[in-house]
Amino acid sequence: MFSKKVVTVGNVKIGGDNPIVIQSMTNTDTLDFESTLRQIIRLSNAGAEIVRVSVRTLDDIPSFKKLCENSNVPLVADIHFDYKVAIEAIKAGASKVRINPGNIGAEWKVKEVAKVAKEYGIPIRVGANSGSIKKKYENLVPRYRALAESALEEVRILEKIGFDDIVISIKSTDAKENFLANKCLAEKVQYPIHIGITEAGIYEDAVILSSAGLGALLLNYIGDTIRISIAGDPEKEVGVARKLLTLLGFKKGPRVIACPTCARTEINVEELALKVKEWTKDIDKEINIAVMGCVVNGPGEAKHADIGIAGTKTGGAIFVNGEIVESVSHEKLEETFKRYIEKMNPAN
């Protein structure tokens, strides 16, 4: 059900058969060019393919223009209330603008923004979240329909004035409501959909809630671009998004499989698995690596892994594609296993 329409944001394509795009947002003061640019670069290095920046007033425009000129990823201008700020952000180099037509004001103001966006060839993102349901839909039940209809009304405003270079986003703080609203939306439009759980909380809560809510959407093929919302350092958002997409099979990368451990465990599974994750953090191809505590779990339960190790009383048994290739002592376990992993990724 991934969206059929393709929208271009800078050099990034969203929708269609294109890979799911990871986004994040700066939390530095936009007026502070140096700090904001450093954060954009860090987000890009962490894996963000698009970065959103708050452009609050016309005072932010000069700094935002410099950011667009120096950023190595497309920047999205996040605009509220003032249509003039949206227009100037587009002229300053924004690769996309995020507006809420409802709070921009009169339809002619929205029309002016769309006119300039069309002239510069950039898309507009619209939508709704659980805190911005339109009054006319407040009593609509179930509530996920109110969310969906609020977002669709934003789309209709743009379509009415002949603008269809659109990305839509619906976000709720409730994972179930978020899923149902986005499912409803995906059944009615072909525009790319940006997904996230809004105000998901601090790290652990945000990771659990977003993984459940967004994982459900992705496994139903809904969502063309994603942001994991975490209070604090936005680099963490990017890392979690990358890992979620990798573990669900939507992004290439290593997956480290590890057994939950029990009394049969012969090696320190957690410690070795953490080291394997560090060894493989820069690998960008699909590879399943299993770290199993005993021969009961590996290679039997992990025979689908590309490579793995199972603890034994004397050390460990290394297996490749389900077949044991070498048994090693505890002293040589780590270096030998690491060497086998490196052989599977010779580019590194």
From TrEMBL:
Q: Name one Pfam family in it.
A: GcpE
Q: Ranges for the IspG TIM-barrel domain?
A: 5-241
Q: GO terms for molecular function, please? A: 4 iron, 4 sulfur cluster binding; 4-hydroxy-3-methylbut-2-en-1-yl diphosphate synthase activity (ferredoxin); 4-hydroxy-3-methylbut-2-enyl-diphosphate synthase activity (flavodoxin); iron ion binding
This enzyme's EC code(s)? 1.17.7.3
Question: SUPFAM superfamilies, per this entry?
Answer: Dihydropteroate synthetase-like, Nitrite and sulphite reductase 4Fe-4S domain-like
Which residues belong to any copy of the IspG C-terminal domain?
256-343
Q: Which UniProt keywords apply?
A: 4Fe-4S, Iron, Iron-sulfur, Isoprene biosynthesis, Metal-binding, Oxidoreductase
Q: Where is the signal peptide?
A: none
Family annotation (HAMAP family)? IspG
Q: Which family does it belong to?
A: Belongs to the IspG family.
Q: What protein name does the entry list?
A: 4-hydroxy-3-methylbut-2-en-1-yl diphosphate synthase (flavodoxin)
Native source species = Marinitoga piezophila (strain DSM 14283 / JCM 11233 / KA3)
Q: Which gene encodes it?
A: ispG
